[in-house]
Amino acid sequence: MNNYQRIKLPYELNELEWVISFKTMYYHYNILHKNYEVKLLETLRGTEIMEQFPTLENLMENLAQLPEEIKDDVRFFGGGLINHNFFFAHLTKFKPEQKERERTEKISPDLLNLIQEKFGSLEKLKKELVKSALKVRGSGWTWLVLNKKGELKIINTTNQDGPWSLHLRPLIAIDVWEHAYYLDYGANRKEYVEKLLELLLNWEYISQSYQSYIS
Fold first, then answer.
1. Cα separation of 203 and 171, whole Å?
2. Could you tell me the pTM of the whole model?
3. 150 backbone φψ class: left, alpha, beta (φ>0; ψ -120 to 50)
């Protein structure tokens, strides 16, 4: 069983309101994200790629092995599918009554220690992520990733490139394509990123991802 499909959202489209509107979520998930899935499957139809690489992660880690005639399309549409799968999975519904401490207390001690060693504090990590996201020119993503040495890094990728093809493991993903925020924030990317990091990150999911990478 492969995972060459969109994830089912762990929340309703309107449950990220105050940060991401229903209108943005509907367009982002039901139109754009679905299109990446459809276009990737169209690109792979008639090939044995899905048998050769049984998971989407395997596929994106091995782009260099793909036939030249489909490589660019797989890179873009496969990247769009896997990037958005992770992005939507690591968010959680917005609860206006929830305090910051309650949102972050689900971070595993091991991950929190690693963040503090690398960045000084969780707040400093968020500031570095915002700073990095504002440096993306055009369309792309900002990521907190784990490398093979178990070290945390912040990276930017362009278009739908992601950490899998760089043999890095994602912990936080920030979509800075304009379609992710323009309806709600106009050109104010900074406010969008700050609110996303402050209010919507699912630290339990992020911690579980970290544990799966190191175990």
1. 9
2. 0.95
3. left
